[in-house]
Amino acid sequence: MVEARKIAFDAAAFLASAGLGRRITHFKKKQPLFSQGEPADSIFYLQRGRAKLTVVSAAGKEATITLLTVGDFVGEESIAGAVGLRLATATAITACTALKIDRSELIRVLHEEHAIEFRAEVFNALNHPNLGNPGTSFGSTNFGKITTLSTGSTASREFQLAAHYTF
Predict the structure, then answer these.
(1) Does the pLDDT of residue 136 top 90, yes or no?
(2) Taking the chain, what is the end-to-end CA distance rounded to the nearest angstrom?
(3) Residue in 83, 77, 18, 25 with CA at minimum distance from that of residue 51
(4) Please, what sign has the CA dihedral across residues 30, 36, 38, 43?
């Protein structure tokens, strides 16, 4: 009997090439990738160039939210719940190349091709304080006594938790 082996997902290859539910798009300087109020049905991965994300208020004033560069995603609102409208406008600052990923394809990838890694770090787990130097003022009531902790240490336990999600 032959066992089926799952091929490892290569995120870099997925983001570098066109395929099912994704296509490479080119934008000229000042050309919008998408506009505020349009249906949020895709997400863009910037492969080349620079872009900006702006929003226009009800009074007609434009505000720049962020500047985008190679490796940035834009249009993430498309995967947050039901399909809604774009909340901002993304415009090319320079000539850009972006991978346009359809909402359905990105949701499929997030569900099928993922891994999560948890990490925990503990500092001062046994609750042993790192003591400072003894008092050095001769004649002082604290001469020779250790009354402080060393610089940068804490007397309490410290736990740090982290998660890394890979798709």
Answers:
(1) no
(2) 31
(3) 25
(4) positive
Quick one: 41 exposed, middle or buried, by C-beta within 10 A (0-12, 13-18, 19+)? middle
Tokens for 69, please give them.
């560069």
Domains, the chain, in order of start with CATH, read 11-113 (2.60.120.10), 114-167 (no CATH)
3-state SS, one letter per residue, for 107-147: HHHHHHCCEEEEEEEEECCCCCCCECCCECCCCCCCECCCC
Inform me whether the pLDDT recorded for 33 exceeds 80. Answer: yes
pTM of the model: 0.63
- Rounded Cα gap, residues 132 and 141, in angstroms: 17
CB atoms within 10 A of CB 49: 19
pLDDT at 84: 82
